[in-house]
Amino acid sequence: MSTSHTVRVTPRGGESAKRPPHHAPGRRRLITALIFMAPALVLLGVLVAYPVVYSLWRSMFDASGVNFIGGQNYVTMFTDPATFISIRNNIIWVIVAPVTCTVLGLIFAVLMNRIKWATAFKLIVFMPMAISMVASGVIFRTLFQEDPNLGAVNAGLVAVHDAFSPGASYPGARPGSDSTLTVASDGEIQSQATVAVGSVQNFPLVGLQTSTLPGTAKPAVAAETPAANQITGTVWLDFVPGGGGTPGTIGDGKMGLPGVTVEVVDTHGAVVASAVAADDGTYTINSPTSSGSYIVTLPASNFSQGYSGISWLGPTLVTAVIILSYVWIWAGFSMVMIASGLSAMDISLQEAARVDGANEWQVFRRITAPLLMPVLIVVFITLIINVLKIFDLVYVIPPGSSLPDATVIAVQLWTVSFGGGNDQGLGSALAILLLVLVLPFMIINVRRFKMEREQ
């Protein structure tokens, strides 16, 4: 009968073998991770954490940075009308700009699947992203200048207006010193004496430069002899470039004033007939009677400044122009982001809906839009964060007189800190306000990314 024996092998020295603790590999991995993360953590600490903490601390001091005043800067910030204007404008930005960019990006992304020249279309829409914000601001400020000679938008509006307007404008025009014309209190130019039907009444004017005359203006000529029921005459610029010519007489290269409205007024002040001067300055008015005497006048509207477009960069519309410039730049970003989500979509669902009889609007509303919703939310929130801290366009586009009406929090922060206010305590308080407004949207975006990664 065999007996089994258990043999215990004891290590040298009689001690039991020691095993490393089970958490040693995890600790090594943690140390390794920290070593690789150390440069990034240092940069985050220097570039993010330290500025935030220092701004919060600096906001507790006065402009000199010496005297501790607690929350006084925050009280000043929320009692300053400029802060409320900047907050109001930021609210307008958050409501209008992200929605517009997201909607346009969605439309452009969907259209790219329907057109043959999609690549060229994407290039055109995305091209403004290649231009810096400052350069884009300069472009839009130039385009929307109020002076039609400088701003292309108002130049176009003036051209369209003048094409459909029967009159012309000659601001500054007046009768010559030896003329038989008078200027009424309301600015109209009229004949000194009454004019009988069948007579000629000329209007030699000065006070204009030949370079400002319409391109259709021709050399002035004498009006034809009037019929028994007519009053005729010529309206011309009684000036010859370089000097010369006889005042009050036509000739010597003097130019007619086309488009001038001429009216015949009776003794009661009522307008009984009118005409518009031709390119050579001549006019013919048919009188309602074959006899009688009237006053022939040039209404004051002929000498007003005329239509010069819209004050785009004034206090009323400047914010709209700045938002338009932002949409012009960032609609391409939205388009590319949404197009990438659209390309990753399973098109079999759309095809199945079409086979079942759904029209394109139903396919878009019931299938395309819901499947794109995660991408749309990310784009929308990203744009909100971007517009909350918008600075470049708001600082560059408005003229100095309109900047207070267009200011946003970031511009107000710079103004009170470095743009003349020299109060970095108040500026730091505005920076903390901006951080508080941006932080919730950043958290939402991070959570969205985390949820998508876990799915």
List keywords for this structure.
alpha+beta; MetI-like fold; 3 domains; 6-stranded antiparallel beta sheet; 10% strand
CATH architecture assignment of the largest domain: Orthogonal Bundle
CATH class of the largest domain: Mainly Alpha
Q: Describe the global form.
A: elongated
Number of domains: 3
Could you give me the name of the CATH homologous superfamily of the largest domain? MetI-like
- DSSP summary, beta strand count: 10
Structural class per helix/strand content?
A: alpha+beta
Q: What is the CA–CA distance across the termini? A: 66 Å
What CATH calls the topology of the largest domain is MetI-like fold
SSE order: HHHHHHEEEEEEEEEEHHHHHHH
Cα-atom radius of gyration = 38 Å
Strand proportion, as a percent range, falls in 5-15%
Q: Largest beta sheet, briefly?
A: 6 strands, antiparallel
Identify low-pLDDT runs.
none
Description:
There is one protein chain. By secondary structure, the protein is α+β, with helices and mostly antiparallel strands. It has three domains: 44-79 and 423-455, no CATH class; 81-150 and 312-407, MetI-like fold; 174-303, no CATH class. It has 13 helices and ten strands. It has helices at 24-58, 72-79, 81-111, 118-126, 133-143, 152-164, 318-343, 347-355, 360-388, 392-396, 403-406, 409-417, 424-454; strands spanning 174-175, 181-183, 189-191, 195-196, 203-206, 230-237, 261-265, 271-276, 282-286, 293-298. The strands form two sheets. Strands 2, 3, 4, 7, 8 and 10 form a six-stranded antiparallel beta sheet that branches. Helix 3 (81-111) packs across helix 12, helix 5 (133-143) packs across helix 7 and helix 7 (318-343) crosses helix 9 (360-388). The two termini are 66 Å apart.
